[in-house]
Amino acid sequence: MQREMYRLTKYINDTLNELQGELMEAQTAVNHSRSCQYAFSVALTGTRRCVGPYRADTIVMYKHVLTNLGNVYQPSTGVFTAPRSGIYYLALTAFSDAGSPGAPLAICVKLMRNMVVEVALSETHNEDQEDSISTSLLLHLKNGDNVFVQLVKDCFLCDDDNTFYNTFTGYLVYPTD
Q: Which pLDDT belongs to residue 45?
């Protein structure tokens, strides 16, 4: 009988130790997941207004912050800074209005990483008054990489009241550090 009690006690203690180890692993995974929550989504203005054209390429300052989890986007500079190395999803939508029929339409933007062009988008013509362009991509960013949208010289972007036609969004898919 004592031998059986000893065996059961050992079994229960071993099982308890195993469960505590698994609980610690789960808690570590949850804490790691919480430390990886970085996301931003910003819009140009949310008011009826156009920016540009400028005489030189200019960083777009998205002033209307929809989400900024981890404070990774700085509206004062227009720059998203990767807080850690990882795979990031980035999306960009740009819209412009020529102002009047027959006027030239020029939407030209570049998605930049550390002053290097990752994607260039443009739409220039006289065929219609409004147009939009968009892209989304996955980038492997390093801790401290700066990503921003640049408005190409002689091009312009327009927003309308409470409609966010021009947006810039990004989030960490998974860390690689």
A: 77
